[in-house]
Design goal:
By secondary structure, the protein is mostly helical. The protein has a single domain (8-137), classed as Cytochrome c-like domain (Cytochrome Bc1 Complex, Chain D, domain 2). It is built from 7 helices and no strands. Helix 3 packs across helix 7 and helix 6 crosses helix 7. It starts with 10 loop residues before the first helix and ends in a 5-residue tail after the last helix. Bound molecules: heme C (HEC).
Length: 142
């Protein structure tokens, strides 16, 4: 009779659990790697939040940035797609914890290990990135 490693049947279940849990990181934990976090946090939005700029950000969010497809019309995140756990942009605590610089890092690099894609440098310019960040701030506390 073939010998079987005891508990081997549980292995695939374990792997699925590990892969799944990568999408359930604490939402308040910084997404930027620790060694560059301070530097990134200080990277300020160079553009003032004028109504025109917020409007440009809104157009990008619902248009060419495709943000709405994952983050939803109301910014609360669509989690119907398995493996997706986009942010709730109306969460005031999350809004307070993140600086614009951190959000820009995510737009430039994506959020590694999740489906959050690279946006700035691919579909958006730097300036458009800063505009959409101003728009994201308008979800705060809604
Ligand atoms: C394919 C789906 C998808 C698209 C398109 C997408 N996102 Fe995301 N986004 C996600 C997911 C999933 C997360 C959660 C990532 C995580 O937990 O680290 C996320 C997280 C974020 C975060 C939070 C990162 C943090 O520091 O907590 C920001 C900001 C963000 N997205 C902005 C945007 C913007 C702006 C756009 C459009 C220009 C966009 N996203 C497009 C899926 C997407």
């Amino acid at each position: 009779m073939k010998k079987r490693f005891p508990g081997a049947g549980a292995l695939p279940v374990f792997i699925v659990w590990i892969a799944g849990s990568a999408f359930h990181l604490n939402v308040y934990e910084p997404r930027v790697p620790q060694e560059i976090l301070e530097l990134v946090q200080e990277n300020e939005n160079p553009f003032p939040a004028t109504p025109e700029r917020i409007e440009e950000g809104r157009r990008i969010f619902y248009g060419k940035g495709l943000c709405v497809t994952c983050h939803g019309k109301d910014g609360k995140g669509i989690d119907k797609i398995p493996g997706h756990a986009p942010r709730d942009f109306t969460d005031a605590r999350w809004q307070e914890l993140r600086t614009d610089g951190e959000l820009m890092w995510v737009l430039r690099n994506g959020s590694p290990g999740t489906s959050m894609p690279v946006r700035v440098g691919k579909v958006l310019s730097e300036e458009e990135g800063w505009s959409v960040i101003h728009f994201l701030r308008t979800f705060a506390g809604k």
